[in-house]
Amino acid sequence: MAKIKHNNFLDTVNEVFTDAKEQGVLHLYAEGDNFTGRKIRIKQKDLFHFGTTGYLGLEQDKRLKEAAAEAIYKYGTQFPLSKSYISNPLYRNLEEKIAQLYDAPVIITKNSTLGHFGVIPSAVEDGDAIVLDHQVHWSVQSAANVLKTRSVPIEMIRHNNLDMLEDKIKKLSSKYKKIWYMADGVYSMYGDVAPLEDLMKLCDKYPQLHLYLDDVHGMSWTGKRGTGYVLSKLKELPDNVLLFGTLSKTFGASGAVAVCTHKKRHHKIKTFGGPLTFSAQLEPASVAAAIASAEIHLTPEIYMLQNELLERITLFNTLLENTDLPLVERNNSPVFYIGTGMPVTGYNLVNRLMKEGFFVNLGIFPAIPVKNTGIRVTISRHNQAKEIISLVQALVYHYPKALEDTHTTPAKVRAAFKLPILNETPKKKLVEEVRVEYEQTIERIDKDTWNKLMGKQGVFDWDGLLFLEKVFTKNKRSENNWDFHYIIIKDEKDKPVLATFFTYALGKDDMLAPISVSIKLEETRKKDPYYLTSRVLGMGSPFTEGEHMYVDKSHPHWKLAIKQMLDKIEELDQQFNSNWLVLRDFKHDDELSKLFHEQGFIKMVMPDSCQILDLYWNNIDGYPDSLSTRSRKHFKKDILPYEDRFKIVYNKEPKKKEIDQFYELYHNVNKNNLALNMFPLPKKLFTMMAQHPNWEFLTLYLKKEFNAGKSDIPVGVMFCYNNMGNTYTPAFIGMDYNYTDEHQVYRQLLYQTIKRATELKFNRIDFGMTASFEKKKVGATVIPKMSYIQAKDNFSLELMGVMQNN
């Protein structure tokens, strides 16, 4: 199998966060000598604070502060001892009061993240299974992934999709004792909630179903005694539900709480819960503050506080209803999400609001899909009516200006969030410095113009694309029918600034996923061939490799040309409703990377491209001298001694029997190359290659003396395209794996390709992606390549992350 380096998810997140930091909306520092909660000082400016998760404002309550200060003077800044040995003197009081709140046994944890890492591996037993809502908090997903080492299967469903959950339950119920569904009570980005009533009906229908509910964003501001959203719906906690709440955020202190009515499970978690045993315990100040907050929760005062918050939430909701702002989820939680679509629009709006005196949070990838960037506004008791009104006024004024600054529209934003499109007043079209020419067949584009801009590489000169158009149409299988879309952008003097082409095709979501993921998915696809496949509107085509976009970066309007291209493919995307937009095969370019990210794309690492850029030797005898000392030794040891084992045939018009043999060899490689997992190409392709003057089949026949006296047999084939007499392109390969190792078939194919290109006087060879180590040894230059993707949602990415090493 080809070995490629797969995209590092953390590198992608790092780039996104770095960009947001450079835009001044992330990793900020609060300033000042005191903090009241109503305002927050940033960059020497006092801003009204609409980004807190302390919704009731208890973190500023005098009683909590005094309790914390007194505890420090009595017991010190910490109680440096594992809680498994002995708890600080205040712990028992806290546990009793929190248990009184819930009317159930509880376990106090240092924080919710460590709590999940302690509770989940203890609660979930060997022989159980886990199903994750794909929007459940990162800390829950991370803790669940620990159980992969114990062979606990982890599945994932789309957000709040209970039909999908029921299908998973049916699939798992015959193999596993308990099935744990893990979800949030209130989700932290959009403020939407879990469908608890329907979940309990599923629990009644399937007794194996257990619920693990993280309700940290539902705490205190709602529910009896402030016990949160989940208990406000369930009323009491059954044995098959494990609830997680927080003593920080709205509760006003620190720490978290697991609530478990199942006695045996509770005892097991509390006795030994991994990080719960080995981590430091809560500091005396935090315990004391939590006790003070619990005492407030145990009195009618909590309902007064909740009502005061509800008045503010209702006011904000009412004001938003009278605007056209795209509120993603309407409910009575203190979390509001207003979509901006592109990250650059989000940056612009956050900075505009900060200049107006308001601080809000930015919602960015990976918490949400990159094209679903928006601002998260949280309402707290600190906020007064007049600044809530002023915030809405600022939003109404600045939101359209942020869209205009970043060349987007309300319709585009609403489409990204699947919100109803409002009637917009058409704006007067300005005279553009560039214009878009769009066609759906290469035949409508001037051949010389296209070849000048895009020719001499890969299989996408004018003739190559016409060939592909004819191959990938009117086929039986949907994955073999592609739509082609050509874009040329010219300036007012008719000079091309940008040229590219896209195809709309069905692809496998795991094309670049780790091999372990593709192996599992291919097992599922034996019964469901189109499982985890998606419609992709992608630059280039599934067949081609190379620089699929020409852009004249010396032109003053090149960035505008790229934005025009993106506008056009967004228009096509809305027409087709594709799952993915993909811009691919780019070299490293910080300027392009920043531009694409701001327009809603995230960078992914692709397999390296391999090319011999200059066949400068006059004949093949001069080729070894072009290699490094190490590669020359490899050539003399692993390639040259094996050449005489093969009869080399350059076949331009193979017969039907030969085409069948070549197709079988290709199919061998396609099945084995899960590192670049793609649908197999149709047999029609090979038949049409045999009729096209630009294609030839470079074939290795193993001589009978090396095949037990049998007749010569084909053991390897390189399918090669002649691009304008300039570039020799071995587009893909076929091999018989029964002979590859013993006879060094793959290495011989690489060498014979070089030999053939040299004989035909080509200038370069495009070896394509994967197997860069082997290609480098025969003299190829390895060129790192990037792609930029935009997904409708993060489900496939997160599901494949869960599947890795599962």
From TrEMBL:
<dbReference type="Pfam" id="PF13480">
    <property type="entry name" value="Acetyltransf_6"/>
</dbReference>
<dbReference type="InterPro" id="IPR015424">
    <property type="entry name" value="PyrdxlP-dep_Trfase"/>
</dbReference>
<feature type="domain" description="Aminotransferase class I/classII large">
    <location>
        <begin position="47"/>
        <end position="385"/>
    </location>
</feature>
<dbReference type="GO" id="GO:0008483">
    <property type="term" value="F:transaminase activity"/>
</dbReference>
<dbReference type="InterPro" id="IPR016181">
    <property type="entry name" value="Acyl_CoA_acyltransferase"/>
</dbReference>
<dbReference type="InterPro" id="IPR050087">
    <property type="entry name" value="AON_synthase_class-II"/>
</dbReference>
<dbReference type="InterPro" id="IPR015422">
    <property type="entry name" value="PyrdxlP-dep_Trfase_small"/>
</dbReference>
<keyword id="KW-0663">Pyridoxal phosphate</keyword>
<feature type="domain" description="BioF2-like acetyltransferase">
    <location>
        <begin position="655"/>
        <end position="773"/>
    </location>
</feature>
<dbReference type="InterPro" id="IPR015421">
    <property type="entry name" value="PyrdxlP-dep_Trfase_major"/>
</dbReference>
<dbReference type="Pfam" id="PF00155">
    <property type="entry name" value="Aminotran_1_2"/>
</dbReference>
<dbReference type="InterPro" id="IPR004839">
    <property type="entry name" value="Aminotransferase_I/II_large"/>
</dbReference>
<keyword id="KW-0808">Transferase</keyword>
<dbReference type="InterPro" id="IPR038740">
    <property type="entry name" value="BioF2-like_GNAT_dom"/>
</dbReference>
<keyword id="KW-0032">Aminotransferase</keyword>
<protein>
    <submittedName>
        <fullName>Aminotransferase class I/II-fold pyridoxal phosphate-dependent enzyme</fullName>
    </submittedName>
</protein>
